[in-house]
Amino acid sequence: MKVLIIGKGGREHTLAWKIKQSPLVTEIFIAPGNGGTCELGTNIDINDHEVTLLVNFAKQQGIDFTIVGPESSLMAGVVDAFRSEGLNIFGPTKDAARIEGSKKYAKEIMQKYKIPTAQYQAFTDAEAAKNYIVSKKPPYVIKADNLAAGKGVIIAENIEEAYRAIDDILIKKIFNSHELIIEEFLDGIEFSFMCLVNGSYSVPLAVAQDFKRLQNDNRGPNTGGMGAISPSLQISQAQLDDAYQNIILPTIQGLVAESNPFTGVLYAGLIATKQGIKVIEFNARFGDPETEVVLPRLNSDLLAVLIDFNLGKKVALNWNQNYCLGVVLAAKGYPQNPKTGSQLQIETPKIGHVFHAGTLKNSNNELVINGGRVCVMVSLGNTPELARSNAYQCLKNIISKDLHYRTDIRF
Ligand code: AMP
Ligand code: GLY
């Protein structure tokens, strides 16, 4: 079976690594892939949003199954285009992916189907947004309406910062959005709960936690994620059951009722507050770097599962009981201005995996930094401490002068 994976991050390297273990697979293609995926399959020089080129490639190559990584590809309509050509693809339609692509749409669905989330107001006018904020207490949570690679959320500690964020989004348009939402600040433990979803049928994946801030002790700006763990020691099974019953099920049933059924991975970014579990955001895809720590814990054949799942069959997932921890190595200057272009060396670690993200092999076959999040060092352990010490020990196998990472990723 020929499999195409769309995307170029650590998530896609992990998907390729896991799919490669399936006895069903004969060949893997990754579009466009990175300096790690080319070791597992063939990188194809097509970007994730180049839908027509992707469809043509899949038809010419006789691709049997396609998995979509990034939201940009979903929002470009890759699933709709593949399906209209009768090609088998795992992911939501463009319309269903709006649960991630438009924060306002997600909020409307949550309001309509009574899914607990922060209260909010949407604004297109900067003055109106500023007037609204004056009556509220800090911190202020301000979000650009559209996709911003995890960077379009500003938590402003005071009114000046909030005004600056409003101007940045609505006047300077730094995230290319003409709308923002301002929402109530929620306090609690955050966790990432991903589920395979096909209409109103769903199967939860192992829970994970992501470390979104750039620096130790959760300081600095939000990033795409600087580390991840699975499972969480802070969230109980009862809380997961609660989240599944009261958040995941009503959301997917709501989307079915809207005639906008979801297929693919629904990722709920949740927060356990004193008032119960609430939704921070939905994503319409596998999380990154969550995928990097969840899939190493999966014993089941992912390809077989996804094929059956797409056919509407019931599936069961089998997990190992290990703990898994991942540390992201980011380029200097990330997230604002990552410094790319310099070489790095990665020796294969004995007790972990290096999943590549922003890397490429140049014409001399040298590995070069090519993006903000460069790679993720992931290790398993039968205790949380072991998973952590393995990952940090293996970091020594990654040699570069232009990388930095958090030293406080832990369970
Ligand atoms: P998002 O892209 O919506 O997941 O937001 C990125 C990060 O901003 C989240 O992981 C939270 O840490 C933080 N955040 C977003 N919304 C809120 C909120 N309403 N209250 C507190 N923190 C938030
Ligand atoms: N780790 C956050 C995300 O995938 O959006």
Brief description of this entry?
With 411 residues, the protein is an alpha+beta fold.
Description:
With 411 residues, the protein is α+β, with helices and mostly antiparallel strands. The protein has 4 domains: 2-93, 3-Layer(aba) Sandwich (Rossmann fold); 119-183, 2-Layer Sandwich (Dna Ligase, domain 1); 189-310, ATP-grasp fold, B domain (D-amino Acid Aminotransferase, Chain A, domain 1), CATH 3.30.470.20; 323-404, Glycinamide Ribonucleotide Synthetase, Chain A, domain 4 (Alpha-Beta Complex), CATH 3.90.600. The protein is built from 12 helices and 25 strands. The protein has helices at 10-20, 51-61, 71-75, 78-84, 98-101, 103-112, 126-134, 159-171, 237-257, 290-294, 302-310, 384-394, and strands spanning 2-7, 27-32, 42-43, 65-68, 89-90, 120-123, 140-144, 153-156, 180-183, 189-198, 201-204, 209-210, 213-215, 219-222, 227-230, 263-273, 276-283, 323-331, 345-346, 353-356, 359-361, 367-369, 373-381, 398-399, 403-404. Strands 12, 15, 18, 20, 23 and 25 form a 6-stranded antiparallel sheet that branches. It has a 5-stranded parallel sheet with strand order 3-2-1-4-5, sandwiched between helices. Helix 7 (126-134) runs antiparallel to helix 8. The chain is globular, with a radius of gyration of 20 Å. It starts with a strand and ends in a 7-residue tail after the last strand. The mean pLDDT is 95. The structure holds adenosine monophosphate and glycine (GLY). Adenosine monophosphate binds next to strand 7, strand 8 and strand 17.
Ordered list of secondary-structure elements with their pairings:
Elements (H helix, E strand, L loop, with lengths): L1 E6 L2 H11 L6 E6 L9 E2 L7 H11 L3 E4 L2 H5 L2 H7 L4 E2 L7 H4 L1 H10 L7 E4 L2 H9 L5 E5 L8 E4 L2 H13 L8 E4 L5 E10 L2 E4 L4 E2 L2 E3 L3 E4 L4 E4 L6 H21 L5 E11 L2 E8 L6 H5 L7 H9 L12 E9 L13 E2 L6 E4 L2 E3 L5 E3 L3 E9 L2 H11 L3 E2 L3 E2 L7
Parallel strand pairs: 1-2, 1-4, 2-3, 4-5
Antiparallel strand pairs: 6-9, 7-8, 7-9, 10-11, 10-16, 12-15, 13-14, 15-18, 16-17, 18-23, 18-25, 19-24, 20-23, 21-22
Helix pairs in contact: 7-8
